[in-house]
């Protein structure tokens, strides 16, 4: 009898563990929320490191944005923008702003009051607006999760599921969102997206899109952290000419 009771207790223990709440299966909506969490974290942070790469029609465009804000101004910053062979680099360090336009290197005094204008007009939200507008709720609503393991998920887009979700769109953004939806609906036929994540935030997102002419393009976003950033500046900043 004692052995039977012991067996019964063990059976019930394992049974109760097995019948506990199961882990909820991740859906495309899950990863959309992870992306929103990431956007919120960067928007609220005083520091960040971001890289956006777009490949379209054989041309690669890259934006690297690394920053340490100081309240409403900027302590240090690096912005590097390349499009094909064109290069624009801007740096802020120790009270000076440095600019390199295709090899023409200049500098000028940077005043703290200018920082707020840069943050408002060229900060994280402004520089990433077009990306997050594209990666909206409507787009994610048409994805199916093909695989999800060890912090990496693959999502496949189904054009037939693509519908305009306008419930959360502010009135002033409605017309632009609807136009963007129509353009995607009329031109894009396939999207494969790979998302790497940690916790409930995205660390990288890599999308390959195919249009109706069978042409491919790529959008990759790398979120490299919001800790205080150590920025590597060019070694020749002292040689930049005064403007």
Structural notes for this entry:
The protein contains 6 helices and 12 strands. With 243 residues, the chain is α+β, with helices and mostly antiparallel strands. The chain has a single domain (28-224), classed as outer membrane lipoprotein receptor (LolB), chain A, CATH 2.50.20. A 12-stranded mixed sheet has the order 7-8-9-10-11-1-2-3-4-5-6-12. Strand 7 and strand 8 (152-157) form a beta hairpin. Helix 3 packs parallel to helix 4. The longest helix has 17 residues, at 2-18. It starts with a helix and ends with a strand. Residues 1-22 have low confidence and may be disordered.
Radius of gyration: 24 Å
- Please tally the β strands and state the result: 12
What is the domain total for the residues?
Answer: 1
> Structural class from helices and strands?
alpha+beta
Determine the number of helices (DSSP H or I, runs of at least 4 residues). Answer: 6
Largest sheet features: 12 strands, mixed
Q: Percent range for helical residues? A: 25-40%
Arithmetic mean of pLDDT = 89
| CATH fold field value | outer membrane lipoprotein receptor (LolB), chain A
Task: Characterize the overall form.
Answer: globular
User: Strand percentage, roughly?
Assistant: 35-45%
Give the strand order of the largest sheet, numbering strands 1, 2, ... along the chain.
7-8-9-10-11-1-2-3-4-5-6-12
Poorly predicted ranges: 1-22
CATH architecture: Clam
Query: How widely separated are the two ends?
Result: 93 Å
**N-to-C series of helices and strands:** HHEEEEEEHHHEEHEEEE
CATH class: Mainly Beta
